[in-house]
Design goal:
The protein is an alpha+beta fold. The chain contains 8 helices and 25 strands. Helix 4 runs antiparallel to helix 5.
Length: 503
């Protein structure tokens, strides 16, 4: 993945697991060294040490998973399915050098405790070209990821309602290691091990009879009506609030909206929409996320109302949704209703309506201060998710001097030279602005090569991006100009984005 979120060397196990490998197949030998060892009790470790044949190993593994099956009366083992999925995700996102991601500190944490409620990244550089902007020579801090577990995920293992785990790249080599801090990680692992076991006294794995194949029944044809598209808000209070906002542009609390247009590998075009909510504007738990989209004539063509499911982005929050609209120019009004308090933001949407999945093109350029790997599988039309990487647009365009300003662009079907596996791209950056004292400033970097890494699971799609530390920027208003050059196809894309820097 473009961000090269590749982490630490193998995490030291709480108890070393020795493997009697002289008579075991490589598959069993690897199993005894792999992520399943995180879940072994001391007794199981001793039993595995004594195993010397594949037959014994097969029986051990079958019983190992059966003891952790939450539904022992069924052939399906949901615990093992969740384990396998977490291992796959860890291997995809946290691999480092020759070390598989599941054996890194973050991989171990994901496997033992599941995905955190919140992931924050500070310092350092996540993209390979992050230090190549040429705009500052500031020394970057050690990169740090902070994972926050809360309530139902924190209480069982950490015995507290909120737990923060930090992973630091102390040697600036992408080797992230966990920091103990105030959390007893050894005790937490032992609690996780015990919580996983649902049948501690089981001595033999259950056997289930395979279902007998049956001839499929021929279903009667029943025509299915096309789903009705909602074009009007159903709540009168929300209709009134949108009408008042269109007249005055006044919102109960400041929120910000942004949108774009993307295409899936299957050729489905969609418009991702994100509403950015500053911490001071955060609504209550039972709020409503709503939106209405109007065409150029002011006619409502799409509307929705649904429970607001806020996601955290550093200290702020966001809501998001993907919409399907035909070609045209639109004005979208998106908001949050928290009782009688209604906050609204508007954004223009200029949509092609149908993007050619096989043609060269790009996404919008996204400015962000928050990029992180997803710990759950994404759908092709999930907003602002790129092959397992989440890029949260900073829709208010306000960054602090302590932030890193990230820019990100998805490339579709760029030119690739014969024999190459990735495109050869260049980028030219310019930033100009006026600080709070009225002084104009301009910073430029000559065209330089930038890595374009394949986006996982999406053929011929690549991601480029980098970060610019803002410590040397004075508070003020700035314009970010970027020209992305495809040196194989001899074509280019130009982006212009405005942003503000504050203390």
């Amino acid at each position: 993945m473009f961000t090269r979120i590749r982490t630490s060397l193998v995490a030291a196990l709480a108890v070393a697991v020795a493997v009697s490998a002289f008579a075991l197949s490589p598959e069993h030998t690897e199993w005894g060294k792999g992520p399943a060892t995180y879940l072994m009790t001391k007794e199981e470790i001793a039993q595995w040490k004594a195993i010397s044949t594949d037959e014994q190993a097969d029986k051990f593994v079958a019983l190992f998973w059966a003891r952790r099956d939450p539904t022992p009366a069924t052939p399906r083992n949901e615990f093992r399915e969740a384990f396998d999925y977490r291992v796959k995700e860890a291997d995809s996102h946290f691999a480092f050098g020759r070390t598989r991601g599941a054996m890194s500190d973050r991989g171990k944490t994901l496997i033992l405790y599941g995905p955190p409620k919140k992931i924050e990244h500070t310092g350092g550089s996540v993209a390979g070209s992050a230090s190549a902007s040429g705009m500052t020579a500031d020394q970057e801090n050690n990169a740090t990821y902070t994972w926050t577990y809360e309530e139902e995920t924190a209480n069982p293992a950490f015995s507290q309602p909120r737990a923060k785990l930090r992973f630091i790249d102390r040697f600036n080599n992408n080797e992230f290691r966990s920091e103990r801090g105030g959390i007893d990680l050894v005790a937490a692992q032992q609690r996780a091990i015990q919580l996983a076991i649902t049948q501690p006294n089981l001595t033999e794995p259950p056997s289930f009879e395979a279902p007998k194949p049956q001839a499929p029944a021929t279903p009667a044809y029943v025509p299915v009506a096309a789903p009705e598209i909602q074009t009007e808000l159903k709540t009168e209070g929300l209709k009134t609030a949108v009408a008042e906002f269109k007249k005055s542009s006044k919102s109960a609390s400041p929120i910000y909206a942004t949108s774009g247009e993307n295409v899936t590998p299957a050729g489905v075009t969609f418009a991702p929409v994100l509403v950015y909510i500053p911490k001071s504007s955060a609504p209550g738990a039972n709020s409503t996320f709503f939106g209405v989209v109007e065409d150029a004539s002011g006619k409502s063509v799409l509307a929705f109302e649904e429970p607001a499911k806020l996601a955290a982005s550093k200290d702020d929050f966001f809501l998001e949704k993907s919409l399907t609209l035909p070609q045209g120019k639109y004005r979208g009004y998106f908001g949050i209703a928290d009782g009688d308090k209604v906050s609204i933001a508007a954004t223009d949407m200029d949509l092609a309506g149908s993007l050619d999945k096989d043609a060269a093109g790009t996404s919008q350029m996204i400015l962000s201060n928050n990029l992180f790997p997803l710990t759950e599988a994404q759908q092709p039309t999930d907003p602002y998710a790129f092959g397992g990487l989440k890029v949260v647009p900073k829709a208010d365009r306000v960054f602090h001097t302590t932030d890193e300003l990230w820019y990100f662009v998805e490339l579709r079907n760029p030119g690739i030279a014969e024999g190459a596996t990735a495109p050869k791209m260049q980028i030219k950056l310019d930033v100009e602005g006026i600080d709070a004292a009225g002084k104009k400033t301009k910073m430029s970097a000559p065209p330089m090569e930038i890595d374009a890494a394949p986006i996982k699971g999406v053929a011929n799609h690549f991601g480029i991006g980098s970060s610019i530390p803002l410590a040397s920027f004075k508070p003020g208003d700035y314009t970010f100009n970027a020209k992305v050059i495809d040196t194989v196809k001899k074509s280019s894309y130009t982006f212009t984005e405005k942003f503000k820097v504050v203390q």
